[in-house]
């Protein structure tokens, strides 16, 4: 099988794909290392926790890096408070994250298997990989934008012994529109997006703080909260996101009792006796988190989002 044939197979699923020579993994590592200086330690810890580079063995040679973009609309969860249904948005990369990654990895492996080739998923900074591989371009908000779905997509990376037919590697690129548009910078309430830099001020990003179990810093205005976790302010205002901006999937609906439980804090032991609630949190991609997140961050984020609406 050629990489062009793989691209055709995945494109038929509605996915966008780029295949670049595996040698560019060294370039990707270099890009990551060049950005470490000045990064907030908490933000850097998240990068390192989600970073993995393959070590090729004598029977497993990495010849290509495969980056796939799957269109994935935002979601919403409905909570019931004193008889009132309250809708809270959820950004793209949370719901069904693990399922989408598993589906893509399985599809790539299955497409290559008849030719005697292998593929395996790899944990990389997917946005950087997609931009460098020519599949996407950065917005000023450092989110990756893919033609046809904007920033509302799930990015998946795999390595393989498939030889790349070409080399679309470009390195980091900024969307042309961003040269004159500052919609996201003006919409960001925390000042995380700067005018003259492609590096997000991660320590100012609301997502960093609501994904951690630590208390919110005092400088965060309670009115800024609007999502169950993550943030959508810089995407909702972006002209590049018109394609999927208004597509929203209903992820889960929680009755009054379930909402009270979540506001009070839950853990995996409690959820073992709440199969319906556990299933709903699974649909939101939350079961992969530890008890600290479930018991502290989820309760805290939900309270903040409900209070700010």
Concise account of the structure shown:
It is built from twelve helices and nine strands.
Topology, element by element:
Elements: H1 3-11, E1 16-21, H2 24-34, H3 41-49, E2 64-71, E3 74-81, E4 84-90, H4 97-112, E5 119-121, H5 126-132, E6 137-138, E7 144-145, E8 153-160, H6 183-187, H7 206-210, H8 233-236, E9 248-254, H9 256-264, H10 268-272, H11 275-283, H12 291-308
Parallel strand pairs: 3-9
Antiparallel strand pairs: 1-2, 2-8, 3-4, 5-8, 6-7
Determine the N-to-C terminus distance.
53 Å
Beta strand count: 9
Shape: globular
**Which stretches are poorly predicted, pLDDT < 50 over at least 5 residues?**
none
Q: Profile the largest sheet.
A: 4 strands, antiparallel
The helix/strand series, from N terminus to C terminus, equals HEHHEEEHEHEEEHHHEHHHH
- What's the domain count? 1
Cα-atom radius of gyration: 20 Å
Helix content: 25-40%
Strand content: 15-25%
Give the overall pLDDT as a whole number.
88
Structural class: alpha+beta
Q: How many helical stretches?
A: 12
In the sheet with the most strands, the strands line up as: 1-2-8-5
Description:
With 309 residues, the chain is an alpha+beta fold. It has one domain. Helix content is 35%, strand content 17%. It is built from twelve helices and nine strands. It has helices at residues 3-11, 24-34, 41-49, 97-112, 126-132, 183-187, 206-210, 233-236, 256-264, 268-272, 275-283, 291-308, and strands spanning 16-21, 64-71, 74-81, 84-90, 119-121, 137-138, 144-145, 153-160, 248-254. The strands form three sheets. Strands 1-2-8-5 form a four-stranded antiparallel β-sheet, with helices on both faces. A three-stranded mixed β-sheet has the order 4-3-9. The longest helix has 18 residues, at 291-308. The radius of gyration is 20 Å and the shape is globular. The termini are far apart. The mean pLDDT is 88.
């Amino acid at each position: 099988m050629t990489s062009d044939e793989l691209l055709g197979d995945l494109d038929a699923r509605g996915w966008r794909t780029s295949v670049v020579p595996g040698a560019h993994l060294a370039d990707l590592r270099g890009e990551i290392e060049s950005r470490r200086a000045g990064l907030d330690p908490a933000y850097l810890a998240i990068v390192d926790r989600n970073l993995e580079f393959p070590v090729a063995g004598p029977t497993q040679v990495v010849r290509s890096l495969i980056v796939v973009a799957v269109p994935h609309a935002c979601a919403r969860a409905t909570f019931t408070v004193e008889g009132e249904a309250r809708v809270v948005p959820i950004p793209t990369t949370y719901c069904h994250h693990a399922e989408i990654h598993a589906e893509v990895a399985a599809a790539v492996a299955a497409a290559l298997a008849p030719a005697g080739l292998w593929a395996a998923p790899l944990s990389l900074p997917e946005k950087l990989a997609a931009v460098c591989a020519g599949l996407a371009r950065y917005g000023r908000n450092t989110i990756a934008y893919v033609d046809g779905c904007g920033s509302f997509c799930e990015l998946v990376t795999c390595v393989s012994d498939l030889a790349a037919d070409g080399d679309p590697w470009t390195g980091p690129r900024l969307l042309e529109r961003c040269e004159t548009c500052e919609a996201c910078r003006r919409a960001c309430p925390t000042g995380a997006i700067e005018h003259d830099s492609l590096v997000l001020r991660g320590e100012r990003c609301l997502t960093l703080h609501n994904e951690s179990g630590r208390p919110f810093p005092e400088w965060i205005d309670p009115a800024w909260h609007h999502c169950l976790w993550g943030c959508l302010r810089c995407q909702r205002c972006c002209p590049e996101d018109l394609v999927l901006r208004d597509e929203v999937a209903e992820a889960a609906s929680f009755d009054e009792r379930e909402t009270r439980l979540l506001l009070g804090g839950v853990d995996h032991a409690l959820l073992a006796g709440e199969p319906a609630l556990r299933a709903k949190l699974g649909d939101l991609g939350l079961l992969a988190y530890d008890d600290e997140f479930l018991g502290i961050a989820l309760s805290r984020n939900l309270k903040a989002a409900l209070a700010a609406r």
